[in-house]
Amino acid sequence: MQFICGDRVLRYARQANRTLETISQTISAAPFETGGAVRTLWDEHQIARKKIDELESKLMDYEAAEFPVENGLAIGTFKNRGVERLKVLATKICLRPGVIALLADEGDQLRVVFSRSADAAGDMNAILKKTLDRFGGRGGGRPNLAQGGGLVGEVGAVLQFAADQLR
User: Which residue segment(s) compose the domain that 21 sits in?
Assistant: First the structure.
């Protein structure tokens, strides 16, 4: 909160009025009804966001079920998928027995997620640490799920190195 007076009050009031008019025009509501209209839009946005999240989760179930697994390994690279979605996908892939997922995302930086099924052998955190020692970056996790970011190298080489550590 600040105190203003004189010409600054007029400038502030004009700016506030321009802002209110812009909001009013944008959401097609009368200026003094914008508060309620914005609340309604926000509530609708929250409902839509929840529905989108539910649909993305169902879609990821299908993607995980169809994700190719060769010799117990599910290896994949993505562009701008995001580490949180990568973790969800890796976890869903590893609901299948005997699977290890090595996934990478090439976004603002190279990020990796290593996951394994409950019945699969291997310490994903230990493999991540070796991979980070080789390609830089930071990260950590648990024996069943680990993630890292800021790796430097070609994504194929990073994932191949991680796969080689399983042997």
Answer: 8-52
